[in-house]
Structures are given as C-alpha cells and as structure tokens.
Amino acid sequence: MQSPTHIRSPILWLPTELRFRILCELKPRDLVAFCSTCRVARAHIIDQLLWRSAHLLVFDDPFITWSSLTPTARAMNAHRESSWDWFLSTRSRYTLLNALKKGERTEKSLSVNLYADVLLGLVETANAEAPETGNPAWPSNGGSANIALLADLVDKHRRGVEAQAIHDYLSHSDYPSEANDTLGEWPVRPITRSMTRLIYPTDAASRLHLLYGLTHREAHSRFARCEARQLVYDWSSVSEATDFGPFRPDGNINWQLLEAVGSLMGHNLPRLALRDRDRTTFPRGLRYVLPHRIPIDPALPGDWAGITGSWLGTYGFLDYRQLHFYNMDRAHRRAELEEFEEEVGQLMELELKLSEDLASDRKLTFGLPICKDLPILYFEGQSKMRRAMPTQYPQALIGVRGCVALVPDGKTVRWMFIIRYILDDATTAPFILR
C-alpha cells in the first residue's frame, strides 16, 4: 500500500497533451508553484513551450516587435533572438520588477544598469496592438501589455523606480578630481548620467531616463539643472566630427548628451507654461512610449517617419555672451550657469509635408553615416507662434525645411531642421537644428 506522500495528484495522471493544455493557462507565479510540488512536476520547469505561454499571459511577444525591425537592426538583434530563453527571461523580469517595488535603494541593491536594462527591454519589446486572440494582460482599451505594466509600476512604485532604475549613487572618489567641487559636502549624491561626465558601460540608464522624464528629486534640484547645462552648453561636447549634434563619430546617438538635453528641456517646460499661461499638457512618462511603431497613412505609404501633419514644439538657448563666457572662462563657468537661465521659445504649431524637391538642397546633408534601410525623407512647412510675439515682432512666421533618416543602428530616427524667421517678407539668417 502506498503512503499518502506518494499518492500522485490527479493532474499528473492526465495524458501529457491534456496536462500541457491546462498548464498553459497558468501565469508565471502559478506555474512556478506547480513545478515546486514534486519531482514529476519539476520536470516542466525546462519546457520552453510552456514558459512561452506563461510569459505571453503577462508580457508582449518580443518576436512580434523584432519582426518589424529594419534589416540592419534585425541583424544586430539576431544573437538575442537565437538565444532567447522564455524561462530565464520571465524569471529575470519578475525578480527585478519585484525588487523595484520594495522602495529606496540600499547598499545591497543591484546595479542601476541591470534595472534599466529590464525596464528598457520591456519598452523595446512592446507590441503596438493587441492580438485578436486576446491577452488577459492587455489593457481593456487595447495597447501594449508591457506599457500597461510599466505605467502601473510607476504609478504605484514611483519612488522605487526612480531610486533604483534611474538615479545612481556616487561618492567623491567616483568623480573625476575636477568635478569634486560640485558635490559640496555630500558624502554620496543621487545623480543621473546627465549630471556627470563619467563614462558608463551601457546607455540603458540614459535611454530610460529620456523616456521616463524628470524624476521627482531632479525636478526640484538646481544642482541637477546646472549639471545638465554644463554638458549641453560645453562646446567640446560637439564638433564637426559629431555633426555638431548629440552624436558619436560613428553616427550613432550620444545618449548621455541627449539625456542632458532632455533633462534641461524638462526643467524649462513648466517655465513655458507659466509664462504663456498655456494649458497645453505634454505627454511624458513610460505610458506614452511605444518604439518602432509610427502609424502609416495609407494615402502616404512612403512617409515612414510620419512627417506629414501637425506638430507642436519649442526650443531653448543660452545668450551668446553667457555661452562664450562659460566656454572661455573655465575657472568660473559653473557659477555662471547657476546664475543665468536659457531663454525658452514660444510654442510653435508646425504644418509639415513631404517635398522631394529639397533632395538637391546642399544644406540638407548628413556629415555622419546613416542607415540606408529606409530612404531619406525631405520636408518643408511653415508655422506661426501659438501666442502673439512681442510688439516689435507682430507678424512673425517660421519657415521650416529639413530631412529625416535612420542612424546606423537602424532603430533611431534622426531629424534635421533649418528654420527661418520671416518678418514682413524679410528673412533672417537660418538656424540649423540637428
């Protein structure tokens, strides 16, 4: 007679195919609980098909997103696709997501880059639309399960996300000697990559910070804003070798510099709304992020960048005298940036359209390599300020022309604008934005 401890659960007596079908309805937590019950059940822990089903009950299918990448990006992602393990990927996501929910960073916390890699991985594998079969994790109004999960995580555990996945904590010894004075008397200071010149091993944290927006600590910190200014307005950060933009010599993005630009503009947007009494709200945060998905107008199948239509934008700049003083007088340059603030432009409503006639415009050329998986698109348009300009500029119009291309990674879109201010048929010198 068998002892009770050796009596199998009825589910283990079922045919393999039927048992597999039942287990496919379990979410990852429930599947782990089942596999922990006995030796026979534990054998299912290595079943990739089973873990694929469990994974897709909670997350988006990464292979759907990867299939939409450009050939260059797909080739660069080939190793990740071929080595993808459904069980290990699900376990790592659950482990780090649970750690983010615990709150403040501690001495035993994992590297900020590990958390950033997981959150950025959720963003990069988000699907644009829910499949017809339906996924219980998908939002009721459609959309991506990954993005819905991230939005819920930030809403409920913002403190933990910011403390562990975006802010890093560095001591005086971690800083270059010339930057130690910026730490004041803090033994350690929570920073972002936009607040230091240190070179990080990956760009994940910078990219995540750009998508996330300003953290609560950063939004109320003069130190953070000043440090971002130091990177943005340093002439040594850009040159002809970087096409005078936030790029690297190989044509790819300098994410740390772009992070500083995003941080600085994030500080300036509230000033813009307060000054102009504008009630416009700007979509910021992970809930609005969906990469590699630009809706294509059936009437304009060649407009892969979604250029045609209405755009809303602004800009900021430092007075040239302050900019020159900051770059020439190294001894006092940080104090200068603490005292002065950049000017913030008014909101512009742009109406853009494609214009192949601009392909021969010599000014619309990229000095760095680009990805040729998709053709360069040329556009033009015009804008009026949303609010009245000062009295000396009553009829200001903005003429815009530019082009769009992919950077060499095949995933990131690069824009170039040439802007002209038009006053009573008189055109000023153009501004080129890269």
Written account of the structure:
This protein has 434 residues and is α+β, with helices and mostly antiparallel strands. It has helices at residues 10-13, 16-23, 28-35, 39-42, 48-56, 62-67, 71-76, 78-82, 86-100, 112-124, 145-166, 204-212, 216-219, 222-232, 255-276, 320-328, 333-339; strands spanning 168-171, 188-191, 309-313, 316-317, 343-344, 348-354, 377-385, 397-406, 413-423, 426-427, 431-433. Strands 3, 6, 7, 8, 9, 10 and 11 form a seven-stranded antiparallel β-sheet that branches. Strands 1-2 form a two-stranded antiparallel ribbon. Strands 4-5 form a two-stranded antiparallel sheet. Helix 9 crosses helix 10 (112-124) and helix 16 packs antiparallel against helix 17 (333-339). It is globular, with a radius of gyration of 26 Å. 26% of the residues are buried. Residues 1-5, 130-138, 171-187 and 388-393 have low confidence and may be disordered.
Explain briefly what this protein structure is:
The protein has helices at residues 10-13, 16-23, 28-35, 39-42, 48-56, 62-67, 71-76, 78-82, 86-100, 112-124, 145-166, 204-212, 216-219, 222-232, 255-276, 320-328, 333-339, and strands at 168-171, 188-191, 309-313, 316-317, 343-344, 348-354, 377-385, 397-406, 413-423, 426-427, 431-433. The chain is an alpha+beta fold.
What's the arrangement of secondary structure elements?
Layout (H helix, E strand, L loop, with lengths): L9 H4 L2 H8 L4 H8 L3 H4 L5 H9 L5 H6 L3 H6 L1 H5 L3 H15 L11 H13 L20 H22 L1 E4 L16 E4 L12 H9 L3 H4 L2 H11 L22 H22 L32 E5 L2 E2 L2 H9 L4 H7 L3 E2 L3 E7 L22 E9 L11 E10 L6 E11 L2 E2 L3 E3 L1
Antiparallel strand pairs: 1-2, 3-6, 4-5, 6-7, 7-8, 8-9, 9-10, 9-11
Helix pairs in contact: 9-10, 10-11, 10-12, 12-15, 14-15, 14-17, 16-17
